[in-house]
Amino acid sequence: MVIHSRSTSAGSGGAFAVPLRGIQTSLLLGFFSACAFFAFFLIATQRDRASSPATLPTGWVLLCVVFLMLPFIACFFLLSRRTVESIAAAGGVACLSFGAFLLVSPFVFGVTLLLEMWGPNRAGMAAAIALLAFMAAGVAIIWFGARIGRAHWRSFGMGMGASALYVLFGFGFLGSAIYPMGRQAQRHKEQADMDRNMPGILANQRLLSLAACLFQNRMRNPQAGFPASLDPPPQDWKCDTKFAADVVPEHTLAYVAQPDSSGRITDFELTAVPKAKGVTGRNPIMIDNRGLLFVYYPWFLEDAVAKDMVGSKDLMYSQITFLKTNIQQYMKDKNDGLAPPALNADAIGGLGHERPSIEDDGMRLETRDYETRYFPPPASNAKVFALSAQCKSYGVNCLRSYFADYDGNIHATSEPRQATADDPLALRCEFAAGTECPDVDWFP
């Protein structure tokens, strides 16, 4: 015989009323602590997703919210029916569902601690505290749910069985969903990073192309020097690239001629300055007659002291320093200290950036952006050699060409030709891109 009873009659003996009030209070505490946990967790992951190694896809976190909240809704609904069977079924749902949640809570707690360690705010710690409160409420929910279940074991068992199916399906679904959702979130992040960085990339390319035009123009007419203005361009301007202050999105371009004491323009400053400060990774850039790109870094940070850093990586991409070191090591280890008559794979060794193809019987190396020529030892000294690395993609991926002379010094030019021993030595800061250049005094 099935007995229908309201909560008042079910608790009339005192044995049912106490666990009923206890599970109601514990469910409320668990509900609010779960809401607080997810709120702080989303704040911690959204504030700076790039700095947090424990970041999870936002869509997947929202699925977890739905998965956790449905047992709360089921329990509150069953308890509101106020029959012995529905209350006992609520106890079964509570025992199994929150028991399963407690099993995974230590892992989630570890994730929130990682957010606190690597995150830029205190939301990770607040989420961890809220999770501890949820775990305490979960223990109370299980305890009171088990006591309520004794009133009607069949309904209690049905509630546990339904919850078991829900938990198994839910965890399986969440496990299968995290990878594709993570991949999608990563693609969105990469696209957002690309959209944010694209104006800076375009600014670099525009300055590189304009500087190449300036050097080519000077080579055709060395006595004329550099033009006084690029807007409008000079009459002998042969380049397709034209100057305009607003040609690059979110940047302002400027060209300032630098005359010497005689009035002849021997230097220039070609700059691109972001219109807004505070965008991550977006800094003012400048090229002058040295043909090097300088970055005023980290200008985008409000409280940081920015400095002029070398942004060009031509010397590294030419690989001339790595090649010179490898040849010297080859001479020491395998060739009795003598320079080889031509280059081979052993003499070239590992260069790190790009492995070149060997052409002209070992006298020439080719990479995407550089052509490197090997000069064997002269008759007077069999222990020395020279190298020339000339920029092939001039004005697109590089400007500088280099020459390592027989004494080991590296010379550089920004003109579209081979560098020679008559060119100036490469700047010291040029050997380590991203370092401060002390002889550059420029700020936007």
Task: Give the structure's gist in a few sentences.
This protein is of the alpha+beta class. 48% of the residues lie in helices and 13% in strands.
Instruction: List SSEs in N-to-C order.
Output: HHHHHHEEEEEHHHEEEEEE
Percentage beta strand: 5-15%
* Count of strand segments: 11
Instruction: Outline the low-pLDDT stretches.
Output: 1-14, 50-54
- Main beta-sheet strand count, sense and barrel state: 6 strands, antiparallel
User: From the helix content, strand content and strand pairing, which structural class follows?
Assistant: alpha+beta
Helix content: 40-55%
Structural domain tally: 3
Quaternary structure annotation = single chain
For the terminal residues, how far apart are their CA atoms?
Answer: 88 Å
On the 0 to 100 scale, the average pLDDT is 85
Radius of gyration: 35 Å
Query: What is the 3D shape?
Result: elongated
Number of helices: 9
Largest beta sheet: strand ordering: 6-7-8-9-10-11
